[in-house]
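Standup notes, protein team

Yesterday: finished cleaning the Marine Group I thaumarchaeote set.
Today: M20/M25/M40 family metallo-hydrolase structure.
Blockers: none.

Input for M20/M25/M40 family metallo-hydrolase:
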Amino acid sequence: YSIIDETEPFEAEHNSPLVRALTLGILDIEKNRPTLIRKTGTGDMNVIGNSLSIPVVTYGPGDPHAAHTIDEKISIDEYLRGIEVLKRTIQHLKRLHDKIK
């Protein structure tokens, strides 16, 4: 076999406003501090984060270890909580942005 393409890894700074806002959004809805993990696959976040030099994160409801497997599934409640997490994240990101202006 031969490698025909590659994507450079990307890791957002843990103290970036985006990571802080997402952490706060998760705390608001789930009531516990999230565990930050490295995604060992690739995705748009690698390309966007590296090419634009901006913090990028991947977030979604459900078990990250079951993602893209035959066992991947989420409940409607998990889906709706995920939407609320993202709404809160945007609110926290705006607040953090306004604070540093």
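Follow-up from PR in the comments: The chain has three helices and no strands.
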